[in-house]
Amino acid sequence: MAMLTDEAVTESTPRVVPVRTSDVIVAADATASGLPSASGTAVAPQPAEDLAVGIEGEETVWEGRYSLRNFLGRSLVGGLLAAIWAMLAFDAWGLGRESWEFLAILFGIGALVFWVHLAYQLIRASQSHHYRLTTRRLFVASGFFHHRVDQIELLRIKDLYIQQSMTGSWLGVGTVFVISSEQTLPRAALVGIDEPERIMDLIWHHTRLEQDRKTTKVENV
Predict the structure, then answer these.
(1) Distance CA 129, CA 182 (A)
(2) How far is CA 156 from CA 30, 170, 185, in A?
(3) Which residues contact 129 (CB under 8 A, 6 or more apart)?
(4) Are 127 and 144 in contact (CB under 8 A)?
(5) Number of H helices, E strands in the chain
(6) Record: fold of 60-65+129-220
(7) pLDDT tens, N- to C-terminus, the chain (221 residues)
């Protein structure tokens, strides 16, 4: 295939830069404007910040975070504390039993502290774990005060497995571990996500597609 060279761009002659996909050549101008591609399917416009993801046909296929189902048990405990406090408060102030006032105040403070701490844990967990799978890479973002984003090329993934507790199995949540040849991240964890089995299969499916695509490209060359 001949190498493309940069050409001068004028207002009367818009510049069209071909971008390679897995099977067809799509004009960058068509991608930016939402015009039909060479295959006949419309290409949706891409924001400027997403241009890095989308080159060479890369697309996002899944995004996930730490599942809120992991907090179901703690939420039930908090609800029980709130119910006990409500009964004590009714006896102390509703029925005028002053002997219950101290216990009602004590339970009220305990329930409030518990719920404030639970809310902090919920916000921190949901914001500290973010995962994104594309047709080429897996992104693993972690950290609340110090945010870090790692990426793993699907070509480098060697193995996948799931870890679930008994409660997690009932709730449909778990952790997917990704083993790769990445030197900086040989073992990545997608912690506490929904439907871990489906996500593991999805990652493996696109890993095989990317490996097959790479093998086919090398053989053609």
Answers:
(1) 20
(2) 32, 32, 11
(3) 65, 66, 141, 142, 190, 191, 192
(4) yes
(5) 5, 10
(6) PH-domain like (2.30.29)
(7) 333 334 333 333 334 334 333 333 333 333 333 433 333 433 444 443 343 445 567 899 999 999 999 999 999 999 999 999 999 898 888 887 788 888 899 989 999 999 999 999 999 998 899 999 999 999 999 998 888 999 999 999 999 999 999 989 999 999 999 999 988 889 999 999 999 999 999 999 999 999 888 777 665 65
pTM comes to 0.66
**CA 203, CA 209: separation in Å to the nearest integer?**
10
DSSP-assigned beta bridge partners for residue 140:
131, 150
Evaluated on CA atoms 46, 51, 54, 55, the torsion sign reads positive
The encoded tokens of residue 146 equal 């110090």
Rounded distance, CA 103 to CA 81, Å? 12
Q: List the structure tokens of 50.
A: 């997403």
